[in-house]
Design a protein that fits this description.
Blueprint: E1 3-10, H1 14-25, E2 30-34, H2 47-52, H3 54-73, H4 88-112, E3 116-119, E4 121-128, E5 131-137, E6 142-151, E7 155-157, E8 170-171, H5 173-176, E9 185-189, H6 193-204, E10 208-212, H7 224-237, E11 240-242, E12 246-252, E13 257-262, E14 268-273, E15 275-278, E16 282-284, E17 317-319, H8 330-344, E18 358-360, E19 365-370, H9 373-379, E20 383-389, H10 394-399, E21 405-411, E22 417-424, H11 427-439, H12 444-449, H13 459-468
Parallel strand pairs: 1-2, 1-6, 2-3, 6-17, 8-15, 9-10, 9-15, 10-11
Antiparallel strand pairs: 4-5, 5-6, 7-16, 12-13, 13-14, 18-19, 19-22, 20-21, 21-22
Helix pairs in contact: 1-8, 3-4, 3-6
Length: 475
């Protein structure tokens, strides 16, 4: 006999597991289905983010940054390191432990909030009498029914045509996180978030990294001034970045990969890499969902079609996260998951796409929220800009990390903050102040008038806000 629930969530990534917890908090009998598993076959909820994305990549970024600091940065602090040695197996083991802790944390949260967890692949069977029947294909097959269904099946890495991922020579984000030996020559196709983060990890550990990007501009979604600073700093660190390239034939060999491409001047080039990471975006994951069984509509790009409230074409079926329109960000998925659970309860869940922060966890980190300067120019918005370099920040000097800046963009008349862009130490943490300010429609003057602790990196935020009115105090 099928088990009945008020709400069933398909997928336990950031959007799915948070949606399930919030639905349970609101008093609904809730189930969550997820098929991720460990090598031992045990449940591994958390989706791409926890298993092969956000969490393990940050673990390796942290470890590799420690290694680089020990080899190159400690000396100026009066710390001499003798016989520095990399134990990559132990580093990868730590990464796996961090992932496992997050998996177990989600299972604990399900138990705490009385969410029923089903391990397997969830797919629609039929809609009947105002409920949806869903099959769970796992170690044993089960059938459950629900009045409301939330689809949170995430995304998969996009492959190059005719070049499948083998995760040995041609790597997606999954393989990029599990390279057993530091490659001498590493190729990365795509200078986006994943390409730059993974390229940074393996460069720090000793690889000669070449990044090939098809677009003529570096980090086109980032404020142009910040992107130019990033390009300068990354190339100085040792990343070789080629823009405007056209990828041709890719030929995996026995122990290497040959990439033929045309550079931005039209010259034919050939490079041989020990490993090749392909990071050219992600595609929505609806494989096995059996959407056609219930008439669930997908859009022209394969995403589950939703309206502004994440409602699909079917009554009481919702979708959130990477499988729907909007930025493919874990925190965006979480906010949508909470909002949908609250909408099911008759509340007014809300997600403000204009104040979703973006972060690239390179060193220095890059973070931003709101409009870029090029967007404001294109839209004909009159604005004022203010910048402040970390070079003039006392805490940054003490840390020994003075690269980058904070940049404010504010409306020329009202002074309302329209965008904040940061490249520098812990930009991922500093951006939160800007998100709060923009959510409350604060002005640059508001931030400029708030007392910030001294010495702190956040003072650079205050100073950039002051600079909007051309009155920064320390630069």
């Amino acid at each position: 006999m099928a088990k009945n629930f008020d709400v069933v969530v398909i997928g336990a990534g950031p959007g799915g597991y948070v949606a399930a917890i919030r639905a349970a908090q609101l008093g609904f009998s809730t189930a969550c289905i997820d098929e991720w598993k460990t090598e031992k076959g045990t449940p591994a909820p958390g989706g791409t983010c926890t298993n092969v994305g956000c969490i393990p990549s940050k673990a390796l970024l942290q470890s590799s940054e420690h290694f680089e600091h020990a080899g190159h940065g400690f000396a100026e602090h009066g710390i001499d390191v003798q016989g520095l040695k990399l134990d990559l197996g132990r580093m990868l083991g730590r990464k796996d432990t961090v992932v496992k802790q997050n998996n177990e944390g989600i299972l604990y949260l399900f138990k705490k909030n009385k969410v029923s967890f089903f391990h397997g692949r969830g797919s629609f069977v039929k809609a009947e009498g105002g409920t949806y029947e869903i099959k769970v294909a796992g170690a044993s097959e089960e059938t459950i029914t629900a009045k409301h269904v939330i689809v949170a099946t995430g995304s998969n890495p996009r492959q190059l045509p005719n070049v499948p991922f083998d995760e040995k020579l041609v790597l997606s984000n999954t393989g990029a996180l599990a390279i057993g030996d530091v490659p001498k020559k590493l190729g990365v196709i795509g200078a986006g978030v994943i390409g730059l983060e993974m390229g940074s990890v393996w460069r720090r550990l000793g690889a000669d990294v070449t990044v090939l990007e098809a677009l003529p501009a570096f980090l086109g979604a980032v404020d142009e001034q910040i992107a130019k600073e990033a390009f300068k700093l990354f190339t100085k660190q040792g990343l070789s970045i080629s823009l405007g390239v056209k990828i041709g034939t890719i030929t995996p060999g026995k122990n290497d990969v040959t990439v033929e491409y045309t550079d931005d001047k039209g010259n034919a080039q050939k490079a041989v890499f020990d490993k090749l990471i392909v990071s050219i975006g992600r595609v929505p994951n609806t494989i096995g969902l059996n959407a056609e069984a219930v008439g669930l509509q997908l859009d022209e790009r394969g995403f589950v079609a939703v309206d502004g409230d994440c409602k699909t074409s079917l009554p009481n079926v919702w979708a959130v996260g990477d499988v729907v329109r909007g930025p493919m960000l874990a925190h965006k998925a979480e906010e949508e998951g909470v909002a949908v659970a609250e909408r099911i309860a008759g509340q007014h869940g809300h997600v403000n796409f204009n104040t979703i922060p973006w972060v690239i966890y390179t060193s220095p980190e890059i973070a931003w929220v709101g409009k870029t300067e090029q967007q404001l120019k294109a839209e004909g918005v009159a604005y004022k800009a203010g910048t402040f370099p970390f070079l003039a920040n006392g805490r940054a000097r003490a840390l020994g990390d003075t690269s980058g800046m904070v940049k404010f963009l504010a409306d020329a008349k009202s002074d309302e903050i329209l965008g904040v862009h940061i490249i520098g130490p812990v930009a991922s943490e500093l951006i939160s102040e800007a998100v709060v300010a923009m959510e409350f429609r604060a002005s640059a003057e508001d931030i400029a008038r708030i007392c910030h602790a001294h010495p702190s990196l956040s003072e650079a935020t205050k100073e950039a806000a002051l600079a909007v009115d051309k009155r920064s105090l320390n630069f």
